[in-house]
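Model it.
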Amino acid sequence: MFDRYFGACTSHDAGACAAEYTADGQVFSPCRAPATGSAAIRALHEDWFQMGDSKRDVSIMDAHVDGQVGFCSLVFSVDIDFPDGVTGTILGSSLNTLLKQPDGSWKIRHTSFNTFGD
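Modeled.
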């Protein structure tokens, strides 16, 4: 599931990113209002992709499943190419809750992002 999600992020496919969340999924970001539901999560990803990221690195720090529920914590860096030609890097982490679906697949229910530094 995370391979599909990160692949969709790399290709800037907001619809595919949103598809990895439950229908009532939620994303909490320090720079945006909370997004709840597929349409809002898709729109949030579209906004992020318009920022012009050129490189994205992700490392899963911890993951665990207990029955129908799981969690995953990760750290990330995203390089942003600003219109003035300067590249900046956003460093952060996220904590994700996961729910097993009736078909046996996994979807993200919650994502809470934090950024490091100023």
